[in-house]
Structures are given as C-alpha cells and as structure tokens.
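User: Okay, second chain of the day. Same drill as before: sequence in, structure tokens out.
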Amino acid sequence: MNTDFLIIGSGIAGLTYALKVANDFPEKTITIITKTTSDETNTKYAQGGIAGVMNFNEDSFSKHIQDTFIAGDGLCNQSIIEIVVKEGVDRIKEIIQWGAQFDKDPFGDFKLGKEGGHSESRILHHKDVTGKEMERTLLEAIKNCSNIQLVNHCFVLDLITQHHTGYLVTKSTPDIECYGVYVLNLLTKKIEKILSKITLLATGGNGQVYRTTTNPSIATGDGVAMVYRAKGRIENMEFIQFHPTALYETSIKGHSFLITEAVRGDGGILRNHEGLPFMEKYDSRKDLAPRDIVARAIDNEMKINGNEYVFLDCRHMDIKNFKEHFPNIYNKCISIGIDVSKDMIPVAPAAHYSCGGIKTDEWGRTSIKNLYAAGECASTGLHGANRLASNSLLEAMVFAHRSYLDSASQINNIELKKNIPDWNAEGTTAPGEMILITQSLKELKLLMSDYVGIVRNKERLHRAMKRLDLLHEETETLYHKTEVSPQLCELRNMITVAYLIVKSAEFRKESRGLHFNTDFPGKDAILQNTIL
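Assistant: Same drill. Structure tokens below.
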C-alpha cells in the first residue's frame, strides 16, 4: 500500500491530525491503522476532562501556565507550556464546533471542574466519559472524509528507514528518514509494507508494562519501542505517572477501573483504614495536591498499615449530583456492591501516564525525518517531571494541529521511497508454546511493579535491569527464530520500554516529580532531560 499521510493510532491525536490533513488535501490519501478497532484507545478511557482557560474573569493563561510548571516540578519547557495553554483554547473550541458535547449549567455556561494542581476551575467534561465523547466526535467527523482509509486489526512491526535498504544506521547517523512501516495484517496473517510520504505516530502510552494500570490492553509502548529501534531519540522515560485512585478489586490485575480526580475535585476525601483523612500530613493542598504527591502519600499509608488500598469517601457528597456527574463510576461501584452514598470506595495507585516518550520539537517533529509524534507517545516538554491533570487531551490536540501545519508545508516536496524490500521471514517457524511469551510477560510486569514503581532505589533498579537483560535475550532469540505474532511483538516492545524506564531512572541522581529515589531524596541535580 502507498499513502501520502500515514497515521498509526486512532486516539484524539491521530484522528485530529487525520481530519485536518484530509480537509486541507482532498486529493491526497490518508491512512489510519490500528491494531484493534478504531475506538479502542487511551483517549476512550480518559474520564476527567480537558483543561482550558474558558473563564477569563476568574482564570488566566498565566495561572494555567504556572500550575503546569509547578506540577512538572520545574522540568517543563516554558515555551511549550505557553504554546499549549494559549493555543489549546482554540483547539477546544474547534472540537466543540465538530460536535463535542461538554456539560453545561442551566444557564448554558460550561461547567468547569477543578482538579489536583489547578488553582482555578478550568476542566471541561462530559460527565465522567470525556475522552469517549471526544473520540466519538472525531470518528463521526472522519466518516465524512472520503480520502481517509481506516484500517483495523493491523499491527505495526517496525518503521522503515535507510537501515532496510542496506545502510548502517546508528544514533549518530545524520538525517535518518522514515519511509513507512512494516505491518502484520491480523486478518490475513501476512506481513505487508505501507509506504508513506509522512508518518505520524499516535500510539498512546505504555501502562501495560506494570501489573496494575488504568490503561487498556493495547497500551504496550509500541511507538516508543519502534522509534528507539530505528535509532530515534527518546527522553524522560523515568517519569511514569501513577494515578492515585484506581478502583481496588482483588480479582482484577491488568486494566483497573479509574476513579477520576474530578471526584476529589468535587469534595471526595481520602481516608485510611481507621477512617481518618491523611492528606493534610503530606501537603497543604490536601486531597487536591498534584498526582505525584497524592500517589506517594497513598503508597506510604499502605506500607505503614500493611494494606493494599485506602478509601475514597464520597458519603457526604450530594448523591444526585454524583450520579449526574459520575454515572459511569456510580454504576461500576454498584455493580460490585459499593453504594457510594453509604460505603467508601477502596482505591490504590495504578500506572496511568507516561510523561516521557519520543522526543519532539515544537512542531511535533521527531529526530527522524518525515516522522512526527503526538499524544502520550510523544515527549513535547509540556509535562516535565509530572503531568498536570487534564492537560493530556489538550496537548494531544495542540500537537496534532502543529504536526499538521508543519507536514502540510512539506508534503509536496517529498517523494515516496521506492525499492523497499519485503519483510524477511526466512528461517522462522511457527511458534511452539505460548507459555514462553505469557510467562515472560508476567515476569516483566512483576519486576516493574516491585522494583520500578512509585518509590525506587539503586538496588531495586539494578535488580530490575539484570532481570530485563535476561528477558531481552530470551525474547530476541524467540523473535528471530519464530514467525511474528502480536503477543510476541508486544512483549518485545514492552521489554524495550521497560529498559528505557529503568535506564532513565538510573541516570537521574535526584528525586523529582514522579521519580522518587530513596538514595537521592533531594533535588540536587542540574535540571536536564534524560535522552536515550
């Protein structure tokens, strides 16, 4: 297949980009590929909302900029924050024009929520399924674009660069170029190549490297791993955000149900097993402190008392308003026997968001020519050491728009690369035992959760790296001798991502934001990104 624009991933970043280039270039072909279905994305599971300065009487750009910088613990790029905050309002208005429905009060004004780390109420939301509503809006809009082809069940194996045409490519190779991708068609079981003039990676996060995560099963860090293999630049992978309040269910491991931060914004209180509120011991902002502080506080309370969870108390809140604002959460709790008007909700931190990723500039350009990245897989400089709540959907739309602007100015100067070889599967055989993959995956999740979680130290990181080396060796051997499968490729990608997280954590000789190392409890290091 040949295409002008290739988008990998169908979350808010990929769909926004596709819609813009399709409208601007009706004569060109746009192809979106996903490894499952078009609506199964991290965007779909974003509950809380999208942050934007919509009330200039009480809020301001400078306040949102300052809140973002403080949450990022000083490691953010100031110019990027200003770009996202100021341009983000136009992007919000744009998706509203496309049909997104955000909650309004009886007077027709947007209901603006307040979440941890925000000094003002600026969160737009659609009940407690904001991401799903935005995803729905974009998918509906794309149906009207005849030049967009949406290909489901297509697993990307690798980016195609000069490496595949016989040239030696290293980290120091100047002008590495992306020519498209190799994909495994999950319906035909055949490996195909898709050649493109411009490629956008919008592959989402990597929460599945941990045992418990709010991310869906597709969040296996594929984009980050592919760019690293292609010798592109990756940065700040040590900053993994753990959402403080995932619903604790003893039978669930893997994809945890998220209790949005907006519940605490509306008055929810964290309590220990004695029923006492504890956040005041850790931060003057109490339950509305930034996520890194709240997650560490909960982690500490669990370790002190030997429990696997704490409680979120909503019993004092107006139940009618709760049902209206958080219907999804209310119904989920009822389904497992929790009546939020009478019972406290058991919660525990879960891996949620990767603040680092594929290094990009202010236009979404990666270190590889003709390759862009947007959304959670990208590291734009906005989040620094910790993401401010509800800034992710905003960032995705802003950089999808900026990537569109830059790629639109380049598309007519790019020729499709010819003479790209087919995928070489010579010498491989059908996989024997799936246990070789599933057991390695269990080991990976376990070691990352136990050694590279909310709190780390040198010994834990050293042990994690030794075990990762063995998993890497075993998986690479399996990869080179057997036919590729989504399970094997995802395992391979997750091992790569886990390596990048551990390596970055070893490089940072301080505790900052989401990275807390008990051997370096202070902030003594020079502020710098960890680039791999």
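The CA atoms of residues 236 and 356 lie 4 Å apart.

User: Thanks, on to the next one.
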